[in-house]
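To whoever is on call:

I kicked off a structure prediction for a single chain this morning and the downstream step that reads the tokens threw a length-mismatch warning. I double-checked the sequence; it's 296 residues and nothing unusual in it as far as I can see. Pasting both halves so you can look.
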Amino acid sequence: MQVLSQAIIAPTPLDFERMDVICRRLPPFPPLASQLIEHFSRPDADLMDAVALIRSDAVFSGELLRLANSAEFTSYEVFEDVARAVLYLGFERVQSAIRRITYARLMKDSFNHPLSAEIHRNNMATAYLCERLMECYGEGGEADGVCPYSLGLYLKIGALVLLRGFPRDYPRFLSARVANETELLASERAMFGFSHIEVSTHLVKHWEFPDGFQTLVAQHAEPAEIRLPLTSGNAARLAARMSGALGYAFLKSLSFAPFDSLVSSLPDSETGEFSKNAGEWRSRIDAHLEALSVDV
């Protein structure tokens, strides 16, 4: 395995123009998703108005029904009508579903490299853990006005864009030995002109995600602070490290603190949901990926 030299990872200016060109090659963010996100950002948002928007797109409606009927959202009812599915899911889970469906569309339309599955697994594992952390230790609901699952899902979408933009060079880059995430980000910028976090930040801005969401993606590389209640940003940073510790990192040479060590910083780590060991969490995450039709 190649080891990157210190000369390669010296501080490098951001090549904004090159990054923008690569990002603009992606399909545009689906108009219906933009309409729905804008709709839910309004204080007077109404679920039935959202139903009317969703019904205007037969494919999107079918994807929402499939998700509502998946093992992820356990219900005794089989949903065949969008209105009943939306009312069952509620505001927060509908918004999460919108971003999941949009992410899946972008994956399907834009990324067919074998390594994309590894990055996708990392993103999904981080999203799942971020959601669980916020449910256990957050302020309840969408703290900071941000959906935790969506935040975890889009944090590292920039790695997929680097893979699409540099289908030969990025896999070779990922075969090199990089010790930690700080070195990874510096090395990416040195070799490609920008890091995957900078690409993720640029994309969520280009796609007009809420300002708070954009800020949290941009701050992802900062250290996590375990202060309760957890903020969305700290939950996402901790979730990313947990997913890496559980073996879902797309760059296998990265070193992470052991999962048990990360969990020990949480209260009730011996009795609460996060008292489960690493093997149990891997089983839960694999079941989550399988429920959403992701190869594991």
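Update from on-call: the warning came from a stale cache, not from the record. Cleared it. Sanity check on the structure: Confidence is low (pLDDT under 50) at residues 3-10.
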